[in-house]
Design goal:
By secondary structure, the protein is α/β, with parallel strands linked by helices. The chain is 46% helix and 18% strand. The chain is built from five helices and nine strands, in the order βββαββαβααβββα. The structure holds zinc ion (ZN).
């Protein structure tokens, strides 16, 4: 509540809830705000969602989880495992390892939320006429082969919700591309669809016209143009 500029126009607080995740306590509260009147530019922005930050954390977590599983196995094989009832007693080291894993999960969620809020509010602050996003039904599967599908879906779903809400507040139109629209594979310069483009290709190089651009930037350009077309034909 120390960030005063985030709480402008609040008329009331509602429905406070307290949550405990095993280590930290959280207080959530809904606020009612009076709608602000905002002048929009004629800009259309295409958004391609990147997930590099999440990938790094996921790697770290997987490593710890493997380490933990190895410790259990070694314990069983060496016969030092202590079985009490049906449960394997955990050593102090295992407890510490598990604590680190759950703290990483928490950090992952925090980074996701902070990143999401930052991205969305930066976008909305420019007051564009419309924001165009890819269809999340496809991105969840295609976006990043090294991240679990559920993590990507969670992150994208949360970004979409947050964007929807912020756009609604200031009257920005939020458009989603058709799920069959290939924003990553299409060349923004000539329209050629590069079917062989792999997830690992970070630079888009068009085999047809030679157009060369960062993969995500090319996709964002396509989404922007897609949105412009949609608005003019509507
Ligand atoms: Zn091209």
């Amino acid at each position: 509540m120390s960030e005063s500029e985030r709480f402008i126009g609040i008329t009331s607080f509602k429905n406070p809830r307290v949550k405990f995740d095993g280590k930290h306590w959280y207080l959530t509260v809904a606020v009612e705000v009076s709608p602000e009147v905002t002048l929009l530019t004629d800009e259309v922005i295409g958004v391609d969602l990147g997930v590099k930050e999440l990938r790094k954390l996921e790697k770290q977590k997987k490593r710890l989880q493997r380490q933990s599983a190895r410790k259990y196995k070694a314990q069983r094989q060496s016969g030092t495992a202590v079985i009490k009832g049906e449960h394997l007693m955990k050593s102090n080291n295992q407890k510490k390892l598990e604590e680190r894993i759950s703290s990483l999960c928490r950090r992952q969620a925090n980074i996701r939320n902070t990143y999401m809020c930052q991205v969305v509010s930066d976008l909305v602050k420019t007051h564009p006429l419309a924001i165009v996003m890819e269809n999340l039904n496809v991105t969840g599967m295609l976006k990043n082969g090294k991240l679990s599908r559920s993590i990507q879906e969670q992150a994208f779903g949360a970004i979409l919700n947050q964007t929807e809400w912020k756009c609604m507040q200031v009257g920005i139109e939020l458009l989603q591309a058709d799920r069959f629209y290939l924003s990553s594979k299409r060349c923004n310069a000539c329209g050629y669809v590069h079917k062989e483009l792999k997830l690992s290709d970070r630079i888009y190089i068009c085999p047809c016209c030679g157009h060369r651009k960062d993969r995500d930037a090319n996709a964002a350009d396509n989404l922007r143009d897609y949105g412009k077309l949609l608005l003019t034909t509507a």
